[in-house]
TrEMBL record:
GO molecular function per UniProt: transaminase activity
Domain Aminotransferase class V: from-to ranges: 29-407
Alphabetical keyword list: Aminotransferase, Pyridoxal phosphate, Transferase
Keyword Transferase in record: yes
Protein name: Aminotransferase class V-fold PLP-dependent enzyme
Length: 416
């Protein structure tokens, strides 16, 4: 019995805006979630409400006090979502901007040694590590990921972990291959050799697809982009460990020493993230009998992972009388057909058909996917595979098996 039944899926879909109709295109299947997930209707309403409030935080009036309370609630919600009671959550311009900020502060605070990352990483963390390692006079070492599996493992990191590894970056899930990474295992391996290393995680792709447990991960920084987790554009979210929040960083003279936010932030950003956490707590209550809020959020993560696994299995191995991608002649799947690290995403190429044409033909039939090219965003994954591009098909837990079937029927025609 699936955790997300057909009835529950209908109620889930009803909570999201534009779930099956694009206001510009009309009816469509949304398989472009890695580029930005669907937005909760509650987030849309909350955004409009707070956009109209003229007051700032930190003033002596009722509206200002209310805004401060909203931010305090949001930070408590963030702790529930990511299972952590220490350190600091704050918002910034974007996930990319926050990765640059955390990595720069860590490199300058380290005062030497090595910065360790991997070739799987998105250019946000790789670019930040390369730049700030250079500024700080540190070596930037990249662990090679496994082209066949589309991920990087503890065994790949282990030979490069040295006592002078002062900063490490880890990608939680690849937005190109869709494969997750054992962050906790890599962090343990690093701590065993260099316990004081600052470990910073890019969780932007992972956030919508499963549980985030910062207590379990034992890292120093974690960054997400909430528009990829059912919220909206315009802000990023970071968590800092007590060690990292205490290092020297950009701040106002004579201001609070541990303040990491630059200027007055949008209270609506915090409020909309509370909407996301409230939604996950609701979903967890629908799929479990848990009473504790954090336990319900964990249950929601398990249900999301289970449902998305069913979707990707159907896409790869078929559903009903439709063959899956693995049975279609000339279709190549990045990371292979049976990969337990996969998180709601399938990247593919069709022999003899340009990936841009595949995306265009799907889009013409109302199935939204995305072209990844071997450029500065995806060349680190595609170049070693000898691929100029691929089609990224990215799902979330509100997608359905009938949507997968519609995609497969079209792919049969394209592959033929």
């Amino acid at each position: 019995m699936p955790l997300i039944s057909d009835d529950l899926l209908t109620r889930i879909r009803d909570r999201f805006a534009h779930v099956d109709i694009c206001p510009f295109q009309g009816e469509r299947v949304f398989f472009e979630n890695a580029g930005g997930a669907l937005t909760l209707k509650s987030v849309v309403e909350t955004s409009g409400f707070y956009a109209a409030i003229p007051d700032n935080q930190g003033r002596e009036n009722p509206a200002s006090h209310a805004l401060v309370d909203v931010i305090a609630k949001a930070r408590a919600d963030m702790r529930d979502l990511m299972n952590i009671d220490e350190g600091q959550f704050f918002v910034g311009e974007s996930g990319t901007e926050l990765l640059f900020r955390l990595i720069s502060a860590a490199c300058l605070a380290a005062g030497g040694g090595r910065v360790l990352g991997s070739t799987l990483e998105h250019p946000a963390s790789r670019s930040a590590a390369a730049r700030w390692a250079g500024v700080a006079g540190m070596a930037h070492v990249l662990v090679a990921h496994d082209d066949a599996t589309g991920t990087v493992e503890v065994a790949h990191y282990a030979p490069e972990i040295t006592p002078d590894t002062a900063v490490a970056t880890i990608l939680h899930t690849s937005p190109v291959t869709g494969m997750g990474v054992d962050v906790a295992g890599i962090a343990r391996a690093i701590r065993a050799v260099s316990p004081e290393c600052f470990i910073i995680v890019d969780g932007i792709q992972h956030a919508a697809h499963g549980r985030i447990d910062l207590h379990e991960l034992d890292v120093d920084g974690y960054v997400i982009s909430p528009y990829k987790m059912f919220s909206r554009h315009g802000y990023g979210l970071a968590w800092l460990s007590p060690r990292l929040e205490a290092v020297a960083h950009n701040n106002l003279l004579n201001g609070p020493e541990k303040n990491w936010e630059m200027g007055t932030r949008d209270t609506g950003a915090y409020a909309t993230f509370s909407d996301v956490v409230d939604y996950l707590a609701w979903l967890g209550g629908e799929v479990s009998g848990e009473g504790d809020r954090r336990a319900r959020i964990r249950a929601a993560g398990a249900a999301i992972h289970d449902h998305e696994k069913r979707l990707t299995e159907a896409m790869i191995h078929g559903t009903g009388n439709l063959p899956g991608l693995a049975q279609m002649e000339g279709v190549t799947l990045i990371g292979g057909a049976d990969n337990p690290a996969r998180e709601g995403l399938v990247s593919l190429a069709v022999q003899g058909v340009d990936p841009a044409e595949v995306v265009a033909r799907l889009n013409a039939e109302g199935v939204r996917t995305h072209l990844r090219k071997a450029d500065h965003y995806s060349g680190n994954v595609l170049d070693p595979l000898g691929m100029a591009g691929c089609v990224r098909v990215s799902m979330c837990h509100y997608n359905s098996l009938p949507e997968v079937a519609r995609f497969l029927a079209l792919m049969q025609e394209i592959a033929a």
